[in-house]
């Protein structure tokens, strides 16, 4: 096990200096991070940032166990469902450009969609998982495993699986359905005229200087410094596979801890979104799940934090960001941990 705390220099937007620690800034956060009892075999990183600048970072274990390559701040991992948050930001940017409306129906942009459903389900229902459209796609995965490696176009997947009867009236229930996000991806492609990864790079990744981020799927370039993920580490057993492109909007982004900090600070405190869009992004749509557009808002000591989590195969991501002022906590893990354990660490750091 390699376990080290270090300061790093990442970029103009995300920089670290030991002087910040020497001044005692965020010392309680540093102590909280240092005090976490990492499980044996932990591979990952824990970081705390303020105003888009990483102040404390602790990395442990290996990005590649077989090659004994240490996990570091330059290591990228897959973000799983934290990708939905970025998808929602792209949608809001298209709203600001007048290309999309949150209160418009699916049929407005996809006239070929099943008529009764397409006219009743609105874009914000898809982005908040309150559409009522049954997730026939995820149900089919069990009996048709080849879907996991399918190169089918998003439009073909939506046409095949989007015709089910509504499970509940739009807005009256909540279902964490992957199909919602395939429909969102098709809408964004239709209104932008670009493939989904291209519109995401143009509207989100590049403006936020997420230089280490990309999409882990067969039709995209390999993400640099991507860590391996493990269902077991002694002996190492890898648990990782490419996710098809039609799920790009729900879980295919990968990036570094610096990318996560740049995203959180830039989305909530930078010029990327107008104030009205930031308000829409943080508006709770389904209180029982603390769910907003593509993520959650979770209270910590009475203050709202964006609470973006994700898992795909053995990758685990938690990006928490304090809305009242720019503080970001990031935990990456590649050893198939329970998400609740990671969440408890983030809560402890946030309260420190």
UniProtKB/TrEMBL annotation:
Pfam families: Beta-lactamase. Transmembrane segments: none annotated. It comes from the Bacteria. Keywords: Hydrolase. The keyword Hydrolase applies. Residues 46-332 form the Beta-lactamase-related domain. One of its GO terms (molecular function) is hydrolase activity. This is Serine hydrolase domain-containing protein. Its EC number is 3.-.-.-. Signal peptide: none annotated. It comes from Sphingomonas floccifaciens. InterPro entries: Beta-lactam-related, Beta-lactam/transpept-like, Diverse_Enzym_Activities, TAT_signal.
């Amino acid at each position: 096990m390699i376990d080290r705390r270090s300061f790093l220099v990442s970029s103009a937007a995300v920089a670290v200096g030991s002087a910040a620690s020497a001044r005692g800034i965020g010392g309680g956060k540093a102590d909280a991070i240092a005090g976490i009892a990492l499980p044996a075999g932990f591979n990952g990183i824990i970081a705390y940032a303020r105003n888009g600048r990483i102040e404390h970072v602790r990395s442990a274990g290996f990005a590649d166990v077989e090659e004994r390559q240490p996990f570091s701040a330059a290591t990228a991992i897959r973000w799983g469902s934290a990708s939905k948050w970025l998808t929602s930001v792209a949608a809001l940017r298209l709203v600001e450009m007048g290309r999309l409306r949150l209160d418009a129906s699916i049929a407005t942009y996809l006239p070929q969609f099943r008529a009764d459903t397409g006219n009743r389900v609105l874009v914000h229902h898809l982005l908040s998982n309150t559409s009522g459209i049954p997730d026939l796609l995820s149900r089919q995965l069990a009996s048709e495993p080849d879907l996991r490696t399918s190169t089918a176009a998003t439009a073909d997947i939506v046409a095949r699986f989007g015709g089910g009867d509504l499970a509940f009236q739009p807005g009256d229930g909540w279902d964490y359905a992957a199909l919602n996000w395939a429909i969102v991806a098709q809408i964004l492609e239709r209104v932008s005229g670009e493939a989904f990864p291209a519109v995401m790079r143009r509207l989100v990744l590049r403006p936020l200087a997420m230089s280490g981020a990309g999409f882990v799927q067969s039709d995209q370039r390999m993400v640099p410094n991507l860590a391996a993920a493990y269902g077991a580490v002694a002996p190492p057993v890898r648990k990782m596979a490419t996710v098809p492109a039609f799920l790009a909007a729900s879980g295919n982004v990968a990036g570094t801890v610096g990318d996560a900090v740049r995203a959180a600070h830039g989305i909530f405190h930078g010029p990327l979104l107008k104030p009205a869009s930031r308000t829409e992004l943080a508006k709770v749509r389904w209180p029982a799940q603390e769910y907003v557009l593509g993520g959650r808002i979770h209270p910590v000591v009475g203050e709202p934090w964006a609470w973006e989590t994700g898992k795909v195969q053995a990758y685990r991501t938690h990006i928490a960001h304090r809305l009242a002022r720019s503080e970001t906590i990031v935990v990456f893990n590649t050893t198939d941990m329970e998400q609740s354990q990671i969440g408890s660490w983030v809560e402890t750091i946030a309260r420190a």
